[in-house]
Amino acid sequence: MRFCKKCGGLMVPKKSGGKNVLLCEMCGETEEADSSGYTLVRKVEEKAEVVVIENEPSTLPTTRAKCTKCGNDKAYWWMRQTRSADEPSTRFYRCTKCGNTWREYA
Ligand SMILES: [Zn+2]
Ligand SMILES: [Zn+2]
After folding, report:
1. Ligand nearest to the CA of 96
2. How far is the CA of 8 from the centre of ligand 2 (A)?
3. Beta strands in the chain (DSSP E)
4. Residue ranges with CB less than 5 Å from ion ligand 1
5. pLDDT at position 77, please?
6. At residue 24, does pLDDT exceed 80?
7. What is the per-residue pLDDT across 26-81, written as a single tens digit (0 to 9) for each?
8. Which residues, chain by chain, have CB under 5 Å from ion ligand 2?
9. Cα distance between residue 37 and residue 41, in whole Å
10. What kind of fold does domain 57-106 have according to CATH?
């Protein structure tokens, strides 16, 4: 995770002119992202998004998918389009029975 040198706010990865940069959401400060720092921030961000979506599962469609945890074959699912077009979109599943959440690359 990266923090802003100016204000101490959390830096989030953004695309700017084809380059990966880190942007401070507090003050707008940008910093060129080195590959290792970029990956680390991205991972944390994706994890947080899963948690947010989990709070409102009733609005999600369901599909037949096998839960590896409890063996249930029904799961909520949703897609998440990644920011860069060269990366595949990710499909998330959440077991309707035990709440186990997992992901699958399309
Ligand atoms: Zn800042
Ligand atoms: Zn389950």
Report:
1. 2
2. 40
3. 11-16, 19-24, 30-32, 62-64, 74-80, 90-95, 101-105
4. 4, 6-7, 9, 24, 26-27, 29
5. 93
6. yes
7. 999 988 876 554 555 555 555 555 544 554 556 789 999 999 999 999 999 998 76
8. 67, 69-70, 72, 95, 97-98, 100
9. 6
10. N-terminal domain of TfIIb (2.20.25)
33 C-alpha to ligand 1 centroid (Å)? 15
**Predicted pLDDT at 27:** 95
pTM above 0.70, yes or no: no
In this structure, the chain runs to a length of 106
Domain 1-55: which CATH number of 2.20.25.10, 3.40.50.12780, 3.30.450.40, 1.20.1440.230: 2.20.25.10
* pLDDT score recorded for residue 19: 83
Structure tokens at 7: 């204000």
Q: What spacing in Å lies between the alpha carbon of 13 and ligand 1's midpoint?
A: 13
Distance CA 36, CA 42 (A): 10
pLDDT at position 64: 95
